[in-house]
Specification:
elongated, mainly alpha, 4 helices
Length: 120
């Protein structure tokens, strides 16, 4: 039964990583590609690392704290890095996909520009 659980974690993690890679190829703009790279790939890596942790814990009787720290590190850094890259792309003028219908960041950026102009 334990083998099945570990295998399911590893397979779902691999599938999510594959979907993230396909999304990076298929999505039309930088923002969609970053979304695919950060969301599904992060969860895929976390699931694969969880399977690794369970394998060592249950079969080798080793508590590998480095694997848990890796999970925590990936969970904290990958989405934040994706958000910072997409915000940088937006600030440097990388256009949205022409069929995008919503731009939530535009109002905030316009508001920030008005504040900067008022201060200077």
């Amino acid at each position: 039964m334990i083998e099945i659980i570990i295998s399911v974690f590893a397979l779902i993690g691999g599938l999510l990583s594959l979907l993230g890679a396909i999304g990076m190829i298929r999505f039309p703009d930088v923002y969609g590609r970053l979304h695919a790279a950060t969301k599904s790939a992060t969860l895929g890596v976390i699931l694969i690392m969880t399977a690794t942790f369970l394998f060592f814990l249950l079969y080798e009787q080793l508590f590998v704290a480095k694997v848990l720290l890796t999970i925590l590190f990936v969970f904290l850094t990958a989405p934040l890095a994706g958000q910072m890259m997409s915000r940088s792309a937006y600030r440097t003028g990388v256009p949205l996909w022409e069929k995008s219908i919503q731009d939530d960041l535009k109002a905030k950026m316009d508001k920030d520009k008005k504040k900067v102009k008022a201060k200077s």
